[in-house]
# Entry
Amino acid sequence: MHRFANPTRFLKFARPATWVCLSLGLLLLVPGIYGGLFITPPDYLQGDSARILYVHVPAAWLGMAGWSGLAAASIAQIVWRHPLAFVAAQATAPVGAVFAALCLATGSIWGRPTWGTWWEWDGRLTSMLILFFLYLAYIALADADRERGGEGRIAAIFGIAGTAILPVIHYSVLWWNTLHQGQSISFVRGESSIAEELFWPLPLTAGGFTLLFAAAVLMFMRAELARGRVEARLRRQAEGQR
Amino acid sequence: MNHWPFIIAAYGLTLGGTALLLLVAFVRMRRFEKRAEELKRR
# Structure
């Protein structure tokens, strides 16, 4: 990680990596989406609406993984003062916010035919909504800090403190007896209670969306680094004209 | 209840949202990288 803390070295890696992530992401997503929509059988209990799983679950994972990445970058920013850490955290925030919003929206759409309601203030839904608001708060904080010429330390502290919501989201279905179904997949135990013929498109869509997430973060990081170069050059030009 | 309108809405929203996100990121990246190149050439 320390090797890529240098912006020039990072850009050398990021330029090809952006296109690799984009193309590989699409390559995984197409068969995953097709399989989820047309090949897998309907669920015995939920019927066809269970197909929403292939977009809803990756969105939920990425909404949470995005904040983990943001928090890791914030730690690097505070502890090692990596020049790229704030850029990485800032680039991750809008992407994570979009996936958290997609998780909420697709969950709501899934809830209507399954539970008979668009929204319920249950533990999982409410904690995910809080995560979405945390993303918005981080974006506002980081923008305000950058405009004041700060290094984003307040935003970084907020990013680290915000990780408290992640275990709440994860364990919400165990702590409270809620409408949202319990955990079907455990990464720790490497187990899934989803039938094999329904499960196989999920790794494809999860992998595809993860790579597209990475491509979007890399593009936002490249934009932020270029913006920094533009501002530095304009500042030097203005100082030269004085 | 027919589930397909809900499935189409969920997939449309996710794929459309992801495409829009990637487009915004790409346009922003291109705009600043182009501007940085122009300033460097001057």
